[in-house]
Structures are given as C-alpha cells and as structure tokens.
Amino acid sequence: MRLQAGLLAIALAGSLAACGSGGGGAGDAGAAAKARGPIKIWYSNNAEEVAWGKQMVAAWNAQHADQKVTAQEIPTGKSSEEVIGAAITAGNAPCLIFNTSPASVSQFQKQGGLVPLDASYVEERSGDVAQQYKSPDGKYYQLPWKSNPVMIFYNKKIFAKAGISNPSLRTYDEFLATSRKIVASKAAKFAIYPAPSNEFFQSWFDFYPLYAAETGGKQLVADGKATFASDEGRKVAQFWRTLYAEKLASQEKYTGDAFVDGTAAMAVVGPWAIATYKGKADWGVVPVPTSSGKPAAEIHTFSDAKNVAMYSACQNRGTAWDVLKFATSKEQDGKFLAATGQMPLRKDLATTYADYFTKNPDYKLFADQASRTVEVPNVPNSITIWQTFRDAYSKSVIFGQQDVGAALDGAAQKVDQLVKQS
Amino acid sequence: MRRGLIGRLLGAHPVGTAFVTPYVVFLAAVFAYPLGFAVYMSFHDYFFAAPGAVVERPFVGFDNYVTVLSDPAVRRAFGNVLIFLVINVPLTVVLSLVLANALNAAIRWRTFFRVSYYVPYVTASVAVVGVWLFLFNSNGLVNSVLGPLAPDPSWLVNSGLAMPTVAIYVTWKQLGFFILLYLAALQNVSRDLYEAAAMDGAGRWKSFLNVTVPGVRPATTLVVLLATVTGANLFTEPYLLTGGGGPDGASASPVLIMYQRGIEQGNPDVGSAIGVLLVIGVLLLALIERRFVGKEES
C-alpha cells in the first residue's frame, strides 16, 4: 500500500514539475520569421466578416498554391479573449487572428504569445492613430485593423411619438431634457439602455465614449497614471448618474436588444449595428454629447477596434506577414468596408473610399469620426484596470451606493498601483 | 514468502486492484493533479505562458493568499456564498423531502409531476434564466402580483435581495435531482414501520416525522453535502441573472471572482488561492454538517 501511494505521489510531483517548467518549445523564431508555407488563421463569427474573410482567403489561395491559408471562425467560448489566451497556453494558436481585442494585447504579450510586427507598415497604413496601439516596449504586437466608432443612435419613430422632430443631443442638459421628455411621454420606457452589468468591458459603451469626447481624446490611463478622477471624469460620471437616478436608464440587465425592441429610444453603438437594425428600427445618429456641446468635428469617441495579431505558435511567419499585408491592403480594406460597414483603421479613410461614402452617406459620419477615436490604454494589467474602474462605476454611478467623486478617486488610486506592476 | 515488486504493487487482490485502477487514474488525472497544481500555482507568481516562452515563476509564499484575503471583493463573495448556503441547503432538504414524499404516494399524474420537477434540472441555465428575468425584473410577473408590496430596487438589483433570489432560483432548478435521491431512499423505508406507526395511532404528520425522516437520514446527509458542494461552486446563475455579480458585488460568488481574477485578468495564481481557500472552507463546512446531520448514521 505504501509503495502504491509513493508511486502516485512521485507521478504527481513529476507532473507538477513538468508544468512548472513550462516546457515545450516554439522552435527557432529567427527561422520562423522567414519561413513560408501553409498557415492557419481565425476570423470572427460575425456573418458579414465571415463572408469577407472567405473571399479574402480564396483570393490569396488562388495566387499562392504553395502557401495555402486555412481559415475558420474563432472557436466558440465565453469570449474571444479567453479562447485566444487558452490557445496561446496550449501552443496551438493560429498564425493570425483577425479578432484580437486591444485590451488583451498586453496580457497576450506577457504570455509570450505574440510576435512584434513591422512598425513601418503599421504606421504607413494607419497614420497617427497607430500610436495608441504601440506597446510599452515601443513595438507593435497588433496591427490596428478596424474600428467601430461608437455614437448615439436614436429611434426616429419613438422621438416623433414624444413630439421631438429635430433632436438636440449635443450637451448634457439637452440630452437629459430630451430623455426626460421621452420617458414622461411614455414613447419608450427608457431613454437609453447601456448594459448595467459588471463585466470589465461595459464601460467602453457608457463612460468611456463620453469621457473621450469631454477630454478631447484622453485615455483612461496616460503616462502611467489614471486620468479619470478629474473634473471631466466627474462630469461624465455625474451625467450618467443622473440618467440612472431619474430612471431614464435602467439598472437591470436586459436580455434582448433594448433599442431594437423599442424599450429604449437611444443606444451607444458603432456602425456594426446598422446591419442589425435594418428593417427593425428607423434610426438616426449623432455624436456623443459633451457638457459644453462641442462641435461634431471636435468630438472624440471610443474606437471599439478589433485588430490583427500574429501569434508565436506560427511557424511560417513569412507567409503570415504577407497574408496580413494582403488582407489589409487598400483593395481588401475596401471590400471589408463594403461587406461589413466597419471602418478600416487607415489614414485618409474618407478620401480613399470616397465612392463608397458617396453611395452610403449613412456611413460618412462614422468615417469622419474614425479619425478621432480613443483606444483602451495599452498598459500592463489592462483588464484588471477596467474591472477596477467598472466596480467603482457600478457602485457609484449605476447603483448610487457611493459618492461618484469618492468612487473615482478610490479607483484611480488602485489603477495607479496596477499600472506600476509589470 | 517475499513477493516481487509487481506483486507488491498489485497488492493482495490483483483483480480488485485491476478493477479500481481506471478509477484511480481518473481520480488522479481530473482531481488530484489539478488540485495539486492549483496549490502549486497559489504559492508562485504564476501566469499561463506560451510553450517555450522564457518566463519566471518565483515562489512567493503566502503572498497570493494575502492578496486574496485583503481584497474586499473576495471577502464579500465568501460572505455571499454563505448567505446562499444558509438559504439554499435547508430549503433544498425540506422541499425535496416533502415533495418526494408526496410524489411517492399513490396520487394521480404522479409521473407527470415527477417529470415536471425534474425538467428544470436538465434544462440549461442559460435557457431558464430568461424566464426568471421575466419573472423577477421590475416589471415582471412577481412584482405585478405584489403591486405596491414589490421591492424597490427590484429583486435582482437590490443589494439585500439579489443573493436570496439567486438562492431560491438554484433551489428550484436543482430540486428535481434531490427529489430523485429522496425517492430512491423512500423505497428502502420498510412499509412495516408505517403500519406499526398507524397501529400506534400516529397520523400522517407523526408518521412522516418519526418514520420517514429517520428512515431517509443517509439520503439527507448526502443531499446536505451535495447541496453544499454544488452551492459553493455557484457561478452560472449570478453571472447570468445578475450581470456578473451585481448589484455592486452583492451576488458575486467566490468562483465568479476566481474566474475574473484567474481567467479574465490573467492571474491564475490569485485565482488558485481563492480556489484553495474555497476547498478548505467547503471541507470544514462538510465536516460540520456530517457531524450534525449524519451523527446517527455514523
């Protein structure tokens, strides 16, 4: 019996030691960088993006019989980020993922899962906006690919029912007055319905766009310090607090799409939603409000970008890099824009695809806005930082259980500590 | 006679050893190894890395435990799960025993009722959560019935009511499984005992208290332990019903926080420390429960 127990203990200890050493090997990175051959890629499972991805892969494969690309939708999981994180750890990530969240890049980089990209191509394609995607070590581990600059969508029918024909939503006061009118008239149960849940990313669709607009494009963290416990941050938080306190926005989780259902008169979303709203809502769109009512041309917002990254498990990185450039070329970006309505993160977007925007004027506003977008800060502990912020926001702004200013101050102190950690 | 190594390894009953080996391997692979690995992670500065990536994972002693125990969100989550268990476990025992007893009787539509109670258990949480949101949101059916007595803020966004609502939901959802356990146990209670009790003039209630309850005590011990263990592992319900542990963490469970810290935020060392503390807590609770609920059996 003692011998049997001893053998089991040795086997377990051996397993632990093997895990602790992080064994395995990715091979020679230098050789892999030049190697060419078949590669695998993942794209998102959004129907429009899948259609674009399939034609892009077919176009590449038609010209490169010896460097075939095998593509698939990102495997189903609770979130893309968790699936990618698991694939990095398992060593079976594909070469390229056209669905990499900028918020997760610092974590993937820490895991040793990403390959730095050629900075000159990144900056040449995206222009100044690329700087936001640079990692603290000065390299690019993600190619800024596409954004969905979020704006305020409003339901024209609900507004008309409330007796509002030309909505004025530029200032906080105007926005609140309009919201009160909608709810008082019972045209809709709520004026607006951002998700009040506790997930780290939800602040990207309530606080952050308005904060970007109020501050002229400031990120949540800048120069290693939290920026949001400022006058601008308090104004934005107080604006949302008023919406929740007056029940113009709901504290409760909603299982469907409140905007499509007509439960809410407004939504904070990007152009990806236009396809969803087709035939279901007669919508109009305006930039997010600011306290003083800045002109539209000065308004910044959250980018809601997804980028392309190359993963260290890739053996044929020479081919992967060529495919990355091919998929983000002027021609393929144009096809992507036409297929999805999402904005390629290219400089001079509006002029490069002038024909498209002439034929699709609904998207012109988003193209203008795309040049003034703010990304989540590319700092260590990015997701922990956002969860810390969300917890404080949730407690004070959504549920009113703490003073808004005190909550922001407390969160800022914690975030400052988190930014310092590697 | 001195036995060889293989003989000693296989023990006195080689066939028996052969039979249990698959289970031992299974246990080692899916229980002992992950548990051991979690303990290892909790004492190191550990994060998941790509194969071949050169990373340091130094031993940090109890640092992760200090981080966990000084985190108000974690402490609150453990408090929340205690509230959950205090509501869920007694309610599960009482309801499942009473309902099993009723379903064991010769009533019409017995099979229909048995299936009806079991259906929520086998239905995915994601599917039934929608129904509960419809019932318990501020404009839901429950508040419509309650009228002016409806709580404000409503059930799932009320700090005091969110966790009890989750506990009642889980009780309802899992009831079918525990009813089945009691139904099986009821088959072993001798009919003679009921007849003897009737002869002594015991009514239905006295017969239930003095024959049924002691007769199913082993099942009660099992139900209490299983309800405690599954309750301590609470994750899906607060995640789906209350939007990730809201309001303000009032329904966050240790496993939910473990998931946030370990998977979402990339700190599996901290997540493991929460997990180890949870295992220790559940073991202590199970020992206490076993001492009180299972005392006659032992």
From TrEMBL, chain A:
Residues annotated as signal peptide: 1-26
Superkingdom of the source?
A: Bacteria
Q: Which InterPro entries match?
A: SBP
- UniProtKB keywords: Signal, Sugar transport, Transport
Q: Keyword Signal on this protein?
A: yes
PROSITE patterns from the xrefs?
A: PROKAR_LIPOPROTEIN
The entry's family comment says: Belongs to the bacterial solute-binding protein 1 family.
Question: What is this protein called in UniProt?
Answer: Multiple sugar transport system substrate-binding protein
UniProtKB/TrEMBL annotation, chain B:
Where in or outside the cell is it found? Cell membrane
The regions listed as transmembrane in this protein's record are 20-43, 81-103, 115-135, 155-186, 207-229, 270-288
Pfam families for the chain: BPD_transp_1
Q: Keywords for this entry?
A: Cell membrane, Membrane, Sugar transport, Transmembrane, Transmembrane helix, Transport
Alphabetized InterPro entries for the sequence: MetI-like (IPR000515), MetI-like_sf (IPR035906), UgpAE/MalFG_permease (IPR050809)
Q: How does it sit in the membrane?
A: Multi-pass membrane protein
Instruction: Indicate where this protein is primarily found.
Output: membrane
Q: Which domain of life is it from?
A: Bacteria
The ABC transmembrane type-1 domain sits at 78-289
What does the similarity note say? Belongs to the binding-protein-dependent transport system permease family.
PANTHER family membership: ARABINOOLIGOSACCHARIDES TRANSPORT SYSTEM PERMEASE PROTEIN ARAP (PTHR43227:SF7), BLL4140 PROTEIN (PTHR43227)
Specify the protein name: Multiple sugar transport system permease protein
Record the organism: Kribbella aluminosa
The taxonomic lineage of its organism, from the top, reads: Bacteria, Bacillati, Actinomycetota, Actinomycetes, Propionibacteriales
